[in-house]
Design brief:
Order of helices and strands: EHHEEHEHHEHHEHEHEHEH
Radius of gyration: 19 Å
Distance between the termini: 16 Å
Strand content: 15-25%
Structural class: alpha/beta
Oligomer: single chain
Number of helices: 11
Strand order of the largest sheet: 1-9-8-7-6-5-4
Length: 325
């Protein structure tokens, strides 16, 4: 078993966080610091969209054209911030060899949030959302290639964040007017676009919303699934069991992002208990990566977030001991 974080952290010191993630977790990751302008997950993904232009409106990001359109000042700033973060990564990870995780917002969550040039969400237009997914896939390829060049000893993993996919599948995303909802997307349709992004590297799809569509994630080619264990109901656990038995890595979100920090024993118990109730082979625990329940940007302070990350390795010991009993 190993440990990692899920991307976002509090504060604005990228250098300090780069040092922390290289020391505290087994799978270091490129931190996202949404407290900085253009440091949130959406802005970072807009920075990766090199084939599409976008600008930032009061209501959020809006696409403005294809690759021949000029990037707005906001998009250029988002790209500049990402470039600065990669400079820090290259500096601090010099000589590093091992796994390294990058995060990007998935195509369905982007489609549910980004606006089209003429209004309403990209989700409303079949052609537009496919164009967006293809542009995202192309941008991710370039992003991964850049990181591999900067940190040649790294085995790059890709985390695709899809917190909005349950709402897309349920037809719960509001239209621009707010008076109705966008049509639901079926499972095969969701798999089709998501699979465009999961081929660039070994990929874990992350969703810390309730009712994560685990079967969609695995059918899209993801080698891992990242979920908040506290939000899994009975159907979710059954899907987890099926995925783990098929060889999928489970990124188990066990440490809450806010509130009191639990002991390692208390944090580990939900995973241990359900593993036993489902009759899963204890050997399959080797496929588990222990994580916080979700991103840590909402943690009250950087020191609190560091403590939550530091707890992960203690949880691994508790879970490992339970697997041997």
């Amino acid at each position: 078993m190993t440990t990692t974080g899920l991307g976002s952290v509090p504060g604005d010191d990228i250098r300090e966080w780069m040092r922390v993630v290289l020391e505290v977790v087994d799978i270091p990751f490129l931190p996202e610091l949404p407290a900085r302008p253009y440091g949130d997950m959406l802005s970072r993904s807009v920075a990766v969209l090199t084939e599409l232009a976008a600008d930032l409106q009061p209501a959020g990001w809006r696409l403005t054209g294809g690759g021949d359109a000029r990037a707005s000042l906001d998009q250029r700033r988002a790209r500049a911030l990402l470039e600065e973060d990669l400079d820090v990564l290259e500096e601090y990870a010099y000589g590093y060899e091992g796994p390294l995780k990058l995060q990007v917002t998935g195509p369905w969550t982007l489609a549910a949030v980004l606006e089209r040039p003429r209004g309403d969400k990209v989700l409303a237009d079949h052609g537009a959302r496919r164009d967006l997914a293809q542009a995202l896939a192309a941008g991710v390829d370039q992003h991964l290639a850049e990181v591999r060049k900067r940190v040649p000893g790294a085995s790059v993993l890709l985390q695709v964040d899809e917190p909005g996919l349950p709402a897309v599948l349920a037809g719960a995303v509001p239209t621009a007017s707010g008076w109705s909802k966008h049509r639901s997307v079926d499972g095969p349709g969701a798999v089709e676009l998501l699979s465009l992004v999961t081929t660039a590297a070994p990929t874990v799809v992350h969703c810390c919303a309730a009712r994560p569509p685990i079967e969609v994630f695995t059918r899209s080619g993801a080698t891992g699934i990242a979920v908040d264990i506290s939000l899994l109901g009975e159907p979710g656990w059954e899907q987890v069991a099926t995925a783990v038995e098929a060889g999928t890595t489970l990124y188990a979100g066990l440490v809450p992002t806010t509130g009191a920090i639990p002991s390692e024993e208390r944090a580990a118990q939900p995973l241990i208990r359900r593993w036993r109730e489902l009759g899963l082979d204890p050997e399959l625990m080797k496929q588990v990566v222990i994580t916080p329940a979700c991103g840590l940007a909402a943690a009250p302070s950087p020191s609190d977030a560091r403590a939550r990350l530091a707890l992960l390795r203690s949880i691994v010991q508790v879970v490992g001991d339970a697997a041997e009993d």
